[in-house]
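Exam revision sheet. Question 4 asks you to relate a sequence to its structure. Input first:
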Amino acid sequence: MTGKLLAIILLVSAVLAGVGMYYLQVYGFYYNVEARPGQDVALLAKGAAEPQPIPYSAFQAIDADSSPIRYRACFETNLTSEELETFQSVENPEPLTAPGWFDCYDAVAIAEALKSGRAQAFMGTKNIHYGVDRIVTVTTDGKGFVWHALNNCGEKAYDGTVVGEECPPRPGS
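Answer key, structure tokens:
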């Protein structure tokens, strides 16, 4: 009888731990980001040091304090492809996935649009967090998507290799 009771306790504990971990990963750490007009969607012009805001509407975003690359956003803009040509493009962008409940952002669809030429990716803000860049993608029909991605310095810093002199010093070091 004691063995069955122990097995039941272990099984219930494992199920509760699994449900708890799933909830924390998919829902628990995320929060909605309030729109800050003129700050949420900005692109880095070619040759510029600071990004400039672009016009947008229908802004939705989520973020989490647990990681600098959990930020995701969706918006709409009326900028044309010709107007976007003045901004710095990003080579080989890889959209990161978002939780399934954040309906406006679909990383697979964004990647397909980028690959087919129906979308362009631009540098939003360099080093928005240490080693993390904000990438902004705009489709030909004016839908926009934002995510954070590790840059070269971030990849080195977070995988443990020597960062080197080409990267800025880490804050607090």
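Marking note for examiners. The CA atoms of residues 134 and 148 lie 5 Å apart.
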